[in-house]
Each structure stands twice: as C-alpha cells, then as structure tokens.
Amino acid sequence: MIHPGFSEPRTKEEWRAYLAAIAHPPRMPAMPAWAAYQAMDDAEREIFNEARDDYHSAFIILRTPPMDRIHAQITKKLKLNKGAPAGARPGIVIDGPPTVGKSTLVKTFAADYEMGLRRKYPERFDPVGPDYIPVVYISVPAGATPKMLSAAIAEYMNLELPRAGATSTEITTLVLKALRKCGTQLFIIDDIHFLDVSVKDGRLANDHLKNLANFCAATFVYTGVEVLKSGLFLEGRSPIGSLPAHTSDGHTERATQTSGRFTLFQLDRFKIDTLEAAREWALVIKSMEEELGLFKHKPGSLDWEYLHDRTGGSINSLSILIREAALDAVATGSERITKKIMNQIVLPRASEESYRNKRKRRRNPPPTQTAEGEAEAI
Ligand SMILES: Nc1ncnc2c1ncn2[C@@H]1O[C@H](COP(=O)(O)OP(=O)(O)O)[C@@H](O)[C@H]1O
Ligand SMILES: [Mg+2]
Predict the structure, then answer these.
(1) Are residues 114 and 42 in the same domain?
(2) Nearest CA owner, ligand 1 atom 17
(3) 226 and 100 in one domain?
(4) 216 with 87, same domain?
(5) Which of 11, 83, 184, 270 is the most buried (most CB within 10 A)?
(6) Ligand 1 neighbour 188 (Cβ under 6 A)
(7) Are residues 227 and 274 in the same domain?
C-alpha cells in the first residue's frame, strides 16, 4: 500500500517527488488502548484525533486484484521487449471509464518499476552522471495536438525549446533526441483520448505516436476512455486499407498502426454479478477497512452489497465514502463505520444517480419472466 501523493506529475522532478512520497506512506497514528484514549484530556485527544483525520484524508492506495493482473501483464511486456528493437515493440492500452483507477494503476506500476531499478542499479541514478529517465509519465492535456504532446514531453524532461514559437517538428526532434540519450524504458501516456485525433482524420496524431515508438526503445503504455472507438484504433472513413472494418453506417474504416501493436486491457468498475466478482469486491472493501484508525471497527463488517449499490462499484466513490465515514466515526465518537453514517454522505453525482435508480428498481421490480412473456402476448 502506498501514498497516493499528488495526482499527475508533469515533470521528472515531480515524478521523483511522487516516488519519494511512495517511499514514505502515511502511517496510522499509534493506537493507544481504548481506556488510555478515554483517559486523554481534551487537548491531547484533539491532537490525536487530528492526526487520525490527516491519516484518513490521505489514506492509501490498495493493490486491488484487477490492478495486480494488469501489472503482471505490463511486467511481461517489459520483459518481452527487453531485447526487441525500437518500433517493433508491443505496447499496452488500458481502457476504462473515468475514475476507475487507470492513472493510479499506471503510476503505481511505474513507481514500482523505477524503485526496482533504483535498488538494482543505483549507479545509473548517480546525480553527477548523465540524466537517466527510465520512466516518462505524460498526462495528456484536453484537446492536445501532436505538438502539445511533444511540448508536454519536453516539459517533463526539462528540455529547453530551441526558440519561442518553435514548430511541432522542431520540438519533436528535440524530444526524440533527448529520449534516445536518457534510457527511457517505460513510456506512459495517460488519458490518450485527450489527444485530438480529428486533425487530418487522426492520421497526424497516430503518425506522431508511431514516430515516438520508432525512435524510443521504451515499452509504451496508454490509458484512455473508450479508446477503441477513438481514431487511435480506427482511421475513420478511409476507403483503402489492409484491415477493413465496417461501421454501422456502412463506412469502411481502417485499423491504425496502433491497433496492430497494442494489446488492450479493460479496467472497469467492480461488479458483483458472479460469486468470484463479489468476492473480489468484498476483499477490496475489507482491505480498506483494515487500514482504518478506528477503535471499534471490525474489518469485514461492512455490507458489500450496500456499498456496491451506493458506489456503483467505483473505487473512487468507495474510497470517498469510507474515508469520509471514518472522519465522522472519529468526530461522533462512534469509532466504527455504520450505515447511518454512510447514509448521510453524499457521493459524486454518477454514484448517487445509479443508487437512486437501483432503489427505484427495487421498489418497482420488473415483472418476472413469465409475467413479461404474458404481457408481450397480450
Ligand atoms: N487502487 C486504489 N486504491 C485506493 N483508491 C484508489 C485506487 N485507485 C483509484 N483510487 C481512488 O480513485 C480516484 C480516481 O482514480 P484515478 O486513478 O484518477 O482514475 P482514472 O484515471 O481511471 O480516472 C483516486 O484519486 C483514488 O482516490
Ligand atoms: Mg486518469
């Protein structure tokens, strides 16, 4: 478990600060015996509870089963790519709806990876030697053009642009040259759906990505929302191509270079529709409960079905709900998370909406199958 640190590092210095934050995760304040807690005077208790609030506010990143599975796949690709030349290296795309933990997953992987390199090869990280940047993490700004992507990489690597108003080609050349020198092995492009693929049918953006991969001997990992439908994987409305696919409106589309080289993994909200899935969800909840600094909360005591209803299986909403409930459990002195506490917490809009709909469906259940059949027959 690690500290989330700040969200999206934009420079290698910020990335290194993120690594440092991970090396020093927030610690749960030492929990005294219940009697000792009760014997505290007001001032002492206030300080102790404030420390617990800070801890609950920071909380931790859980190694969830889906995260472990995708991490294992990225590890395999990195191993596979070790001896492969640049350009031909297969990459990974992690696709999923917003706030399911895609950025957290890739950053955690990249942090583990770089920490491993730092342990194994400390000499490579010698501050007086050439700058070694094994991990590049780029969070794509909304509506980014290929030029903006190159500029973001230049900013991450702390490169000085040749001149104000430099062209896309100039910035890209600069970036590619630097990438060759600094030994980048893992190149993460987070939120790739923000890359504007509408520019000249998306070809420009796709060519740009291909160019990066051709010149940089790193393994590329992209994350995004609905990337399969984006121009990254299909070049829209092109009449020619080796891998034609037909869209519902009859236009021919061509699979892009990206689709040929990247393996797609899906990261979704947690589901509880099978026993195995429900177990996984319950396990995630239990591991969150285990991190709570509360006197009377028993891990495993929370109702996983209720929590799924409330959060729609979103780890983001679950984390908010449990952390906010922990603050309330300290403030009210209940020292355990209860349904009453959780019922009073308002979650992000999407979760609240899905909860309302679920409750509505429960109050007015759809007709049973036979009843439905009969209804249709009428
Ligand atoms: N493994 C995790 N453990 C705990 N909380 C998590 C985890 N993954 C995501 N979260 C929570 O969900 C929030 C959104 O995650 P994020 O990675 O930004 O999602 P995405 O990139 O898919 O939009 C995070 O800020 C964090 O609070
Ligand atoms: Mg993200």
Answers:
(1) no
(2) 101
(3) yes
(4) yes
(5) 270
(6) no
(7) no
Asked if 189 and 103 count as a contact pair (C-beta separation under 8 A), the reply is no
In a domain, 279, yes or no: yes
pTM: predicted TM-score of the whole model, two decimal places: 0.85
**Helix ranges restricted to H, the chain:** 12-23, 34-38, 42-58, 65-81, 102-120, 146-156, 168-181, 203-215, 257-261, 275-289, 304-311, 315-332, 339-343, 349-363, 369-377
In a shared domain, residues 34 and 137 = no
Sheet holding 244-246, edge to edge: 234-235, 252-255, 244-246
CA distance 230 to 227: 5
Same-domain check for residues 228 and 331: no
Going by alpha carbons, the residue nearest to atom 12 of ligand 1 is 316
* Contact call for residues 366 and 372 (beta carbons, < 8 A): yes
pLDDT in tens, the chain (378 residues): 444 445 689 999 999 999 988 888 888 999 999 999 999 999 999 999 999 999 999 878 899 999 999 999 999 999 998 888 777 788 999 999 999 999 999 999 999 999 999 999 999 998 887 889 999 999 999 989 889 999 999 999 999 988 888 888 899 999 988 988 899 999 999 999 998 877 665 677 878 888 888 888 899 999 999 887 777 776 543 333 333 344 444 444 555 666 678 899 999 999 999 999 999 999 999 999 999 999 999 999 999 999 999 999 999 999 999 999 999 999 999 999 999 999 998 887 888 888 888 877 777 766 654 444 333 333
- Are 70 and 182 in the same domain? yes
The answer to whether residue 6 is domain-embedded is: no
Could you tell me if the CB of 351 is within 6 A of ligand 1?
no
Decide which of 239, 266, 293 is a domain's last residue. Answer: 266
* Residue range(s) defining the domain that contains residue 174: 65-266
